[in-house]
Design goal:
The chain has a 10-stranded mixed beta sheet, with helices on both faces. It has a 4-stranded antiparallel beta sheet with strand order 15-16-17-18, with helices on one face. It contains 13 helices and 18 strands. Strand 16 and strand 17 form a beta hairpin. Helix 6 packs parallel to helix 8. Helices cover about 30% and strands about 15% of the residues. The protein has one domain: Alkaline Phosphatase, subunit A (3-Layer(aba) Sandwich). By secondary structure, it is an alpha/beta fold.
Length: about 500
Amino acid sequence: MMKFNYFAISNMKKYLLSLILLFFVSNGIFTNNEKKPNFLFVLVDDQPFDAVGFSKRYPFLKTPNIDKLASEGVNIKNFFVTQSICSPSRASFLTGTYPHIHGVNQNNKHVDPDWKNNVPYSVLLQENGYHTAHIGKIHMAHKRGVDHIRPGFDYWYSFIGQGDYFNPMVNDNGNEIKEEGYITDILTDKAVDWLTKKRDRSKPFILNLWHKAVHEKHLPAPRHKDLFKGLPLPEPPHDTHKETFEGKPEWQRRKTFGFRWDKSKEIPKVLKEKKWPINKFKNMQLLRSLIAVDESLGIVINALEELGELENTIIIYSSDNGYFMGEHTYRDKRLAYENSMRVPMIIRYPKMIKKGSEIDEQCLNIDVAPTILELAGITKPGHMQGESMVKLFEGKKVKKWRKSVFFEYYKDDAWPFAGPNQIAVRTKKFKLVDNFLENDIDELYDLKNDPGEMKNLINDKNFDDIEEDLRKESIRLQKKYKYNPDRDWWLRKQVKKRK
């Protein structure tokens, strides 16, 4: 190899080279031999934002490892997904873009993001010297063999669609095999095996450990099947289980009745309160399933500690969407209520983040990719719509942080969980939900005085100015994020059907 002799070149060339070196250093590509951080990104499926031990929503729920992670890091209290459904949210985490941009807005077995124009963080990290691994759920286009491996991963261990809780078929670096055991334990073992035996120790790493749990059917590990047996299911905060849908859109009452939008059948303007508990068995199963995830987190963190890598590893813990646990009498997610769009987000990095700290600012899943890149010293590419959260970690007030979040949902075929197409604008005080229905009403909630979103203020004249401001903000955000539902494959398909 030809050796580079800096001192043998002209002064002009020296000047130009100095500028180039300064550029690389300022963008984190050269860091004065400082060791780049590793990343462990644990993503759970369908975990409610308050289904953690430290929230005390469920007195019997013990999640010591999640709790410890929060006590050693930061809890981002107002963290939201841009669309509350598995595939779109996971694609947004990877690409830092909205579903209407990356192209995945349904759990459709044929659709992948536009990886070329929406390069995921995995590719950018790999190109900058990281060893990368994805272990767990991806839930996008159902490809097999080596075609199942998504861009930017040196090691791949995943499965088609939702996968199975027990004895699953998996794709191990392009090879289709059947594993024996419980999926959360299998993924945990593979994560530890990769960390301890398979990765390139000379490189920094990122490991996506993306669980299937706690997705329906919410099957717990056999060792946890009798947990919480006989215990009562606590009522949700703010009496949201007492929902009668008085003053709410008609589609919500029809959804509850299961009429599939059948306008020929009349339904009451106000429904009777359901008796609590609602969906007790399923909710308890979800909480039981979560215990293996908490155990998994502890096992992987212990492995990092034994390897001497823990303090240099940034740990990110979140969920791909929220989940109704009887609030508004619902289960599942999708809709623009808080329980659906809000998720847990905990980040541990002792070198930068104060122990036991909290962040109140509104953050989004599209912020994760830019955050990872900045922490790795990589410039955020132009296609990413999220903002790095690094500036929030210092605990100072950030003046230019977003004052509102934009949420979207595209009606899918998951009956009876689906709603109509929706967009929502949320500030710290109010939320406006546009349901795109000509013969129905929208929704407006005062989040400060009505955090349970029980009273729809859309027809209250006292809030006309608030509604107008939020609609203007919605238009601003639609322009900012290039919202264009006509680009959506599903909507185009429906328009074609109607013609």
